[in-house]
Write a structure and sequence with these properties.
Elements lengths: L19 E3 L6 E3 L8 H13 L22 H4 L5 H14 L8 E2 L1 H8 L3 H13 L3 E4 L3 E4 L4 H25 L2 H20 L2 H18 L4 H9 L1 H10 L5 H17 L3 H12 L1 H4 L1 H7 L9
Antiparallel strand pairs: 1-2, 3-5, 4-5
Length: 300
């Protein structure tokens, strides 16, 4: 490894010779020595990160993705919250969910703070929240990484979302007024226009709006907040599914079916249709794993 002056410095401690650690300065791999020893705790953490997640990047370089200047929308442009903490969290979560900060990538508080135009404090706080969402892993002495996608974590996120939103839509079906239903139908019409224009980002924002409004109609807005925090892994799969042929059109059709049940004040049908709709993302998971194997943890 190198110090701040660019000079090589030796690492102390014990770690397997084959374990390669990404250099935090130049994005290249620096091989840890097999003798001399790291402290046991650091060696265990390194082994845990590189072995249990089975990162696929040992034989390639790991450049920091946020140094790219080719993002569709800059992180700063998406930082639209009310406080610096919320702005940074929202921007980074969106970049991770959309795979602009790809699974396995290493993050730097300094670089992210510079890109977002904030101090390191809100960046650090946002990364802690993202760790709670299972979207980043903070590994002592090694750095912060975007987590690889885990099918089991995706299933957990789906379980939570389906339970919360399924219960919420039942209440919405009992409470919805004609004006509420009209608003839901307008959102679906806007989604159809976004689909026709090929605007996947607008389509996704409208999808979020529709589900948020359904939860709001239930009178239990906490259902949306809890669902949003729990479903980060599921959202990653859903976003990768949007470009698939026919996926958006199917989503629109299923949205109409849900809203029709809400308009008819039929809680059973509304819940059944919403649950079927939410399972769409899971059905596309095998195809996404095949298309992007580097995004996923290897199966044991």
């Amino acid at each position: 490894m190198q110090d701040r002056g660019g000079r090589r410095r030796e690492l102390s401690g014990s770690v397997p010779a084959e374990l390669e650690i990404p250099s935090p300065l130049n994005g290249c791999f620096a091989r840890a020595p097999s003798a001399g020893g790291w402290p046991p705790s650091r060696a265990r953490m390194a082994r845990r990160w590189c072995v249990t997640t089975r990162m696929r990047h040992r034989s390639a370089r790991l450049p920091y993705l946020y140094t790219s200047r080719h993002m569709r929308i800059s992180l700063a442009e998406r930082a639209l919250g009310t406080t610096a903490r919320e702005r940074v969290y929202t921007a980074l979560r969106e970049a991770i969910v959309s795979a602009e900060l790809a699974p396995g990538r290493r993050l730097s508080e300094n670089e992210l703070a510079e890109r977002l135009g904030v101090s390191r404090t809100p960046v650090r706080e946002a990364l802690v929240r993202l760790r709670e969402d299972r979207l980043v892993a903070i590994v002592p002495q090694l750095g912060t990484f975007v987590t690889l996608m885990d099918p089991a974590a995706v299933a957990d996120a789906h379980f939570v979302r389906e339970a919360l939103e399924g219960a919420a839509v039942r209440l919405a079906a009992r409470r919805a007024a004609p004006a509420d239903v009209a608003g839901l139908r307008r959102t679906i019409a806007e989604q159809q226009r976004a689909d026709a224009a090929g605007d996947a980002d607008a389509f996704d924002r409208l999808d979020e709006a529709l589900h948020r409004d359904l939860c709001a109609l239930s009178g239990r807005e906490v259902a949306w907040r809890l669902s949003q925090r729990a479903r980060g892994q599921l959202d990653r799969v859903r976003r990768l599914s949007l470009p698939e042929a026919g996926f958006r059109a199917q989503m629109i059709s299923e949205h109409r079916e849900v809203v029709d049940a809400v308009a008819a004040h039929d809680p059973d049908a509304a819940e059944q249709r919403l649950r079927r709709h939410l399972r769409m993302a899971l059905s596309s998971l095998p195809d996404i794993q095949k298309s992007h194997p580097e995004y996923f943890e290897e199966e044991a």
